[in-house]
């Protein structure tokens, strides 16, 4: 898959003429891959919940999409406005929340 076009400052990618916030480039490879995998699982779960007309499952899946997008730096406080420690804390907190999401008594 070809790398999308980036704005000159690297903060955004251009896809089909639309500007989207880029993933934080400072997230290490392994955590970034885990976050993308969790994001894609949550997106698939949104679709499954919509097909099943299960509002509770849809709400849960959309919440996981939000957690992953924030952890990746694509939503929330822009990653370029955060310190290195804030950026690390953001993606670590996101992974922790997603790893524990939906587990009873945690």
Order of helices and strands: EEEHHH
- Major β-sheet strand ordering: 1-2-3
The geometry reads as globular
Strand content: 5-15%
Helix content: 40-55%
Class per helix and strand makeup:
mainly alpha
| Largest sheet geometry | 3 strands, antiparallel
Assembly state (oligomeric): single chain
Calculate Rg over CA atoms: 15 Å
Distance between the termini: 38 Å
Number of strands: 3
User: Mean pLDDT, nearest integer?
Assistant: 93
Number of helices: 3
Tally of separate domains = 1
What can you tell me about this protein's structure?
55% of the residues lie in helices and 9% in strands. The protein is built from 3 helices and 3 strands. It is globular, with a radius of gyration of 15 Å. This is Biopolymer transporter Tol. It comes from Lentzea pudingi.
């Amino acid at each position: 898959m070809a790398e999308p076009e980036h704005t000159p400052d690297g903060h955004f990618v251009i896809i089909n003429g639309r500007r989207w916030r880029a993933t934080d480039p400072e997230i290490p490879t392994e955590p970034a891959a885990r976050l993308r995998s969790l994001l894609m699982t949550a997106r698939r779960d949104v679709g499954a919940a919509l097909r099943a007309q299960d509002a509770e499952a849809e709400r849960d899946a959309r919440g996981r999409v939000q957690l992953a997008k924030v952890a990746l730096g694509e939503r929330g406080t822009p990653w370029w406005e955060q310190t290195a420690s804030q950026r690390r804390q953001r993606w670590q907190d996101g992974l922790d929340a997603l790893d524990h999401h939906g587990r009873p008594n945690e």
